[in-house]
Every structure is written in structure tokens, then in C-alpha cells.
Amino acid sequence: MADKSRAQMRKKVRSEKDAKESTEVKNEAGSSKENGDVQTAESASAADANANGAAAKPNCEELEPMEVPPFETITGDRMDPFAFRFQFKNVEYSSGRNKTFLCYLVDRGNMADGLMRGYLEDEHAGTHAEEVFFTRCLGQNDPALKYTVTWYMSSSPCADCAVKISEVLKAASNVKLSVYAARLFEWEEEEIQSGMRCLQAAGCKLRMMKPLDFSYTWDTFVDNDDQPLNLWDDCKENYEFYQEKLADILQQ
Ligand SMILES: [Zn+2]
């Protein structure tokens, strides 16, 4: 359903510039996909098993976790700079951006292992990057360790992912998650807003990416050829717009 309304939005507001950018990103993604891993359906069910541990609060119970279709997810060390500039741009309407990019850092509180980092890229039609993270990157959750997880996402989680993430966090008290999102995904939808409040109730820190966070993500997760990120003109204004919306939603 989210995909459908996203598609409608895309049709409605897609500008000529965005349409061009979208085509180029599609080509980029097509070529990198050949090198990407293909997630198996087996590990998808592990997330479901993981998520069954805790009872949801009443307002979270209205949201039905989605069926898991066959899927393909791209994982990598550093993403293409063009894909970053397009996918993470914090425009008000996410025209042409029918994917989620999720950059992650995992601190296992263990100096010897250091930080685990990388990125995931999904097609919205398949299993979402958030869920893949928990099966693939945190599949070997050792209850004796404390995991401090930070995500920098191109857009905030959909309602289904928000419920799943909340359940994982409630079941695994040794996992702390902070999410920094470039944009809010369909924030006008009541179901989405409720999902964000579920995340907050489960202890997830949810924030919008500030201009500095974009630069940090560029430096840390992008194949940037040692070039600095030139922030787009309205980056700060757009951050403030989203920040205000998020604060309103979380306070309700
Ligand atoms: Zn999702």
C-alpha cells in the first residue's frame, strides 16, 4: 500500500530534474546489483522469530506486520556518490526515490571487534533494509554483549518496519538503536505516525539528519574519492521542516 501511494506521489510531483536523476540512479543500481548478495528467504524468517518475543502496547497492536515476499537486497561497504546525493537529499517530496538506503554502525562494546559498518539498499517491493539488518547484520546477537546501533537512513521506516523494529528492541534489551533519517516517509499517514511513536516507546532514538550528519554519512559510507560533500542549498531549511514535523508526531 505504501508503494502504491508513493508511486502516486511520484507521478504527481516528479520534476524534470528528478526524473533525470532517477533514471541515472536506476542505471547505477542495476550495475551494482550484479555484484550484490542475494538474501535468502531462510534468514527472513529468523527476523519474524526474533520479533515474536514481546507484547506490543495497545496502540501498536493495530498495525499488522506485513507478509514477507521474495526479495533482493544490496549490501556494501561504501555506496556510490551519485546514489547518495539523490537518495539522501532531504527534499519534502521523495519523487523517484523508491528505495531505502540504510547505513549502519554497530558498536559491540568490544574493543577487539571494533565497529561494524556498511550499508543496505532495498527496493520497496522486496523486504525492507531495516528487517534485513536484523537478520543479516545482527543475526548472531550474543546476549552477553551490548550492541549500540546507529542507522543513517534515506527515509524513516514505514509502518510495518516500525512495528518489527519495536518488537525486536523490546525482545532484545541488549540492543540500543538510534535512527537518523534524511526524510520522513509519508509522515502525514496516521499509521506511519503511530509507527514512529511505537519506535520511541520501544526505546529507539529517532532523529532527523542535520547538515552535519549528511557530511558525516558522506565521509563514512560513500565512495567519495576524498571529495567533500557540497550540501544542497535548502538542506538546513529542509532539516528544520522535518524536525518540526517529527517533534509534533512524537509528542502526540
Ligand atoms: Zn519498511
From TrEMBL:
<dbReference type="InterPro" id="IPR050610">
    <property type="entry name" value="APOBEC_Cyt_Deaminase"/>
</dbReference>
<dbReference type="InterPro" id="IPR016193">
    <property type="entry name" value="Cytidine_deaminase-like"/>
</dbReference>
<dbReference type="Pfam" id="PF18772">
    <property type="entry name" value="APOBEC2"/>
</dbReference>
<keyword id="KW-0378">Hydrolase</keyword>
<comment type="similarity">
    <text>Belongs to the cytidine and deoxycytidylate deaminase family.</text>
</comment>
<keyword id="KW-0479">Metal-binding</keyword>
<feature type="compositionally biased region" description="Polar residues">
    <location>
        <begin position="29"/>
        <end position="40"/>
    </location>
</feature>
<feature type="region of interest" description="Disordered">
    <location>
        <begin position="1"/>
        <end position="62"/>
    </location>
</feature>
<feature type="compositionally biased region" description="Low complexity">
    <location>
        <begin position="41"/>
        <end position="56"/>
    </location>
</feature>
<dbReference type="GO" id="GO:0005737">
    <property type="term" value="C:cytoplasm"/>
</dbReference>
<feature type="compositionally biased region" description="Basic and acidic residues">
    <location>
        <begin position="15"/>
        <end position="27"/>
    </location>
</feature>
<dbReference type="GO" id="GO:0005634">
    <property type="term" value="C:nucleus"/>
</dbReference>
<dbReference type="GO" id="GO:0004126">
    <property type="term" value="F:cytidine deaminase activity"/>
</dbReference>
<dbReference type="GO" id="GO:0003723">
    <property type="term" value="F:RNA binding"/>
</dbReference>
<protein>
    <submittedName>
        <fullName>C-&gt;U-editing enzyme APOBEC-2-like</fullName>
    </submittedName>
</protein>
<dbReference type="InterPro" id="IPR002125">
    <property type="entry name" value="CMP_dCMP_dom"/>
</dbReference>
<dbReference type="GO" id="GO:0046872">
    <property type="term" value="F:metal ion binding"/>
</dbReference>
<feature type="domain" description="CMP/dCMP-type deaminase">
    <location>
        <begin position="79"/>
        <end position="198"/>
    </location>
</feature>
<dbReference type="GO" id="GO:0016554">
    <property type="term" value="P:cytidine to uridine editing"/>
</dbReference>
